[in-house]
Amino acid sequence: RVTSAGLVLALILSVTGCGSSDTEDGSPTEAAPTTSTAPAVAATPLPEPVQELEIDSTEYTFEITPDPAAGVKPGWTLLKFRNVGGEPHQVMFARIKDGVDLADLAAAGAGDSSGAGAIEFVDMIGGVSYIGPNQDTTALVNLTEGVVMAMCYVPDSKGVAHALMGMTSMLTVSAPAEGAEESPTATEPDAEQVLGTIELAEDGYRVPADVRTGWYHVKNTDSILHEMALLRLGSPTDDDEAEFLVADPATNETPSVELEAVGGMGAVSPGFDGYLYLDLDPGDYLAVDFMPDPGD
Questions:
Q1: From CA 75, how far away is CA 143, in angstroms rounded?
Q2: Which DSSP state fits 184?
């Protein structure tokens, strides 16, 4: 673990034109710590979403459609996230734990660009990791009844998290009142199948041997918080170089190799899960966890 940077895991994925992530010997290329290939599983249907939220991000705000003030239903929610700004952005969802005093939560998170101080007050339920300007990505997040925050914790050039500059939206998730007119159920995805499972485990990322375009079930089986940010490498990088390369973006330094943020799974607390749609161009990708270790 690189606790000073909040870095836990790193993995190089090589995506070919057919969507494969295998090396010449058939195993995934990886960077320390050790990762493994997830066992093959039969395709399963994607959960049917109860609603769709389109989220546009810019400096430093979210525009959510339909307006969440009109009501957000509990259940699996299809997210269509677009970056229409000039800086990288993400949207992660945090459900405030029952009984938490909002004043205590605000005090814990004040001035903390890592977000570590507020983690104990929330359950992180997924979302999407950061993408660059003019990019978009899609995911499914399971919203449960209560107060949920949509946040961007990508730092600016001075290391200040966008959330501390106002890039946070509060959603009240509740079942529609009896007799209330319900909003239309999301029409996508239509009979989609889940191609495989990506596990955020204690010993690293466990990914399918064949990463094709489609939906993946992402679950945190460890005892601490994890995410999976995907960065496309501008040039080939071996495992030893990757170990040093990931330290640059984690400390807000300019990396020695060009990196393009293309999404991934937002932070997921232990025991929680989500679904991520991957549509990666051929090339090498770095999968990284920037979440702070507990107590940092």
A1: 5
A2: P
Q: What is the pTM of this model?
A: 0.85
pLDDT of amino acid 27: 36
**How many angstroms separate the CA atoms of 120 and 295, rounded?**
10
> 62-66: long-range contacts (C-beta < 8 A, 24 or more apart)?
62/91, 62/150, 62/152, 62/167, 62/169, 64/150, 64/169, 66/183
Phi and psi, residue 256, nearest 5°: -75, -20
Mind listing the pLDDT tens digit for each residue in 113-158? Answer: 888 889 999 999 999 999 999 999 999 999 999 999 999 999 998 8
Given a cut of 70, the residues of the chain with pLDDT beneath it are 1-12, 16-42, 179-191, 238-240, 242-256, 293-296
Contact 137, 131 (CB under 8 A): yes
Q: Dihedrals φ, ψ of 83, to 5°?
A: -100, 105
- Identify the burial level of 143 via C-beta atoms within 10 angstroms of its C-beta, where 0-12 means exposed, 13-18 middle and 19 or more buried: buried
